[in-house]
Amino acid sequence: xxxxxxxxxxxxIYAIINDGARAYKGVIPDDCWAEPYMSKDELLxxxxxxxxxFGCETNGNLNGVMGLQSVNDVTLVRHAYVLTSSQRQxxxxxxxxxxxxxxxxxxxxxxxxxxxxxxxxxxRHGFRLLDAKDADYLxxxxxxxxxxxxxxxxxxxxxxxxxxxxxxxWPQ
Length: 172
Description:
Layout: E1 2-4, H1 10-20, H2 40-48, E2 52-58, E3 61-71, E4 74-82, H3 91-102, E5 107-112, H4 116-124, E6 127-129, H5 132-142, H6 147-151, E7 153-160, E8 163-164
Parallel strand pairs: 4-5
Antiparallel strand pairs: 1-2, 2-3, 3-4, 5-7, 6-7, 7-8
C-alpha cells in the first residue's frame, strides 16, 4: 500500500533513507558522504522545504519512501530509498508510479552520476538522462544543493508521448 507519510513516520523515514543509502557508499565521492548519510536535522530541513514523503507499507511498516517537492514549474522526486531487505521487489517502481500520477508539472529526478543502477532504474520507468550542461542548468534553478554535489550528479526528465516533459521556461 502506498500512502502519504505523516509526522509519526519521521523515524521510519530517517531509518529507510540511511539504510537504503548504504548502496551509494563507495560510489559517490567520499567528500559527499556522511555518517549517517542524512542526519535528522537535514531531514527536518527537507520536510520544512516542502518535500512531501510517500511510503510503501507492508504489514504496517514502511519499507520504502520517495519524496515529491514542488519547485516553481516542476515537481522534483527527492530522496527515493528502499530498505536493503526490500530492494528488487518492486517497491521503488510502485512508489515512482504513484508519484508520477500525483505530479501536475514536469518531473525531474536528480541522482549521483556514478550510481548506474539508479539511472537505469529511472530510464526503465520513463525518464531520460539529460546532458551535463542541461543538468547543471536545472540543478542550479530547482535544487538547493552544494556546487560539489552538482558536479557529481545527473538529472533525468520524464518522457511523455515520446517527448521530454520539460519546464515551460526551459531555454531552448
